[in-house]
Amino acid sequence: FKPGLDGVPAAQSSISNVDGQKGILEYRGIRIEELAKKSTFLETAYLLIWGELPSKEELALFEYEVHQNRRIKYRIRDMMKCFPESGHPMDVLQASAAALGLFYSRRDLNNPVYIRNAVVRLLASIPTMVAAFELMRRGDDPVRPHDDLDYAANFLYMLHEEKPDPVAARIFDVCLILHAEHTMNASTFSARVTASTLTDPYAVVASAVGTLGGPLHGGANEEVIRMLEEIGSTKNVRPYVLDCIQRKAKIMGFGHRVYKVKDPRAKILQNLAEELFAKVGYDKYYDIAQEMERVVEEKLGPKGIYANVDFYSGLVYRKLGISTDFFTPVFAMARVAGWLAHWKEQLVQNRIFRPSQVYNGRHNANYVHITERT
Ligand code: COA
């Protein structure tokens, strides 16, 4: 018996597909490179959730609805103000996503209007809640969404209280596209299990956020930045890598359960990082990262260990002024599109998840009275 359900299909899905040997990722059959070049995050979210690229009118309506729902209720803001400023932003996001359900709970899963409103509200509210907590924990009031700015630019505006550079905003939008969906990973599985009970979508997203928060899943890009800071200089890279290999310690940002070549998202993110540095300034950690990739490829490439999505994303987020402990909430902001697509897909042919187990405990044990226990 091997724990972890490795290789066990948990659902049939037409949302995304990974070919780990060839390094291919497709959303609804469209290659990720194509979407990164030509699409926007909201258009990609529409594609994932409704299965087809929207027409011009459908996209305009969807964008309008999301923009109209970006403000969060003042009682949610007040609730968030009561959270400890030292709390992890992922815990805040999980609690806030669940709280949305208190305000909009009238569950009506057979009603397409309910489904549409829930999708729009979750996509629209999560960036506002993420940015609000970053300001609140510093003692500032949250910034109202900017009506003239699109999804990505508005998030950066709410975070920094100033309109972002358009190149930086576009780069951030592409980061959201790259993180929007990735087949049956732990948080998506968690979303589908929760969805299968026919609970509301806010509970589905809250459970997925809780699952994404763990260091084995969404947290690796934070660790990459900490590792690059610890290494400090390109000359320290080789000894660091050799030491990790010798100790059998995992090098953060490398290796993947599915990809045995360089993650296609890492390639795109590396190009974005270079574009961003050219625009807003060089980052010495990029030199360390490049040297690291060279040494790891030389030493571990033959075992199929290459850079994954988390290796370059942290460098991009850092340059965009996003705090390290907000990297995973930003990941969640993007992945909510994938979770909602899986929620909708799960509802179509729902069957509650009820796996079996391999029992390895005792049988026919006696109940010993408390006074007689040793
Ligand atoms: N650094 C060094 N060695 C690594 C490694 C890494 N990042 N990832 C895998 N390996 C090695 C293991 O030590 C193991 O070696 P062995 O066969 O000599 O014992 C072999 O490769 C297989 O490792 P295993 O842990 O079974 O692979 P996996 O498919 O379960 O691991 C990850 C996938 C992602 C969990 C793993 O690569 C990892 O922990 N990477 C670092 C964290 C990270 O970046 N996570 C984000 C993923 S998107």
From TrEMBL:
Name the domain of life this protein comes from. Bacteria
Q: Which UniProt keywords apply?
A: Transferase, Tricarboxylic acid cycle
One cellular component term from this protein's GO annotations in UniProt: cytosol
GO biological processes: carbohydrate metabolic process; tricarboxylic acid cycle
Against SUPFAM superfamilies, the record matches this protein to: Citrate synthase
What pathway does the annotation place this protein in?
Answer: Carbohydrate metabolism; tricarboxylic acid cycle
Per its record, how is this protein called by name?
A: Citrate synthase
The molecular function GO annotations come to: citrate synthase activity
Q: Where is the active site?
A: H256, D310
What lineage, starting at the top, does this entry show?
A: Bacteria, Bacillati, Cyanobacteriota, Cyanophyceae, Nostocales
Which segments of the protein form a coiled coil according to its record?
A: none
Catalytic activity of the protein: oxaloacetate + acetyl-CoA + H2O = citrate + CoA + H(+)
Q: InterPro entries given for it?
A: 2-MeCitrate/Citrate_synth_II (IPR011278), Citrate_synth-like_lrg_a-sub (IPR016142), Citrate_synth-like_sm_a-sub (IPR016143), Citrate_synthase (IPR002020), Citrate_synthase_AS (IPR019810), Citrate_synthase_bac-typ (IPR024176), Citrate_synthase_sf (IPR036969)
Q: Can you tell me which family this protein belongs to?
A: Belongs to the citrate synthase family.
User: Known Pfam families for this protein?
Assistant: Citrate_synt
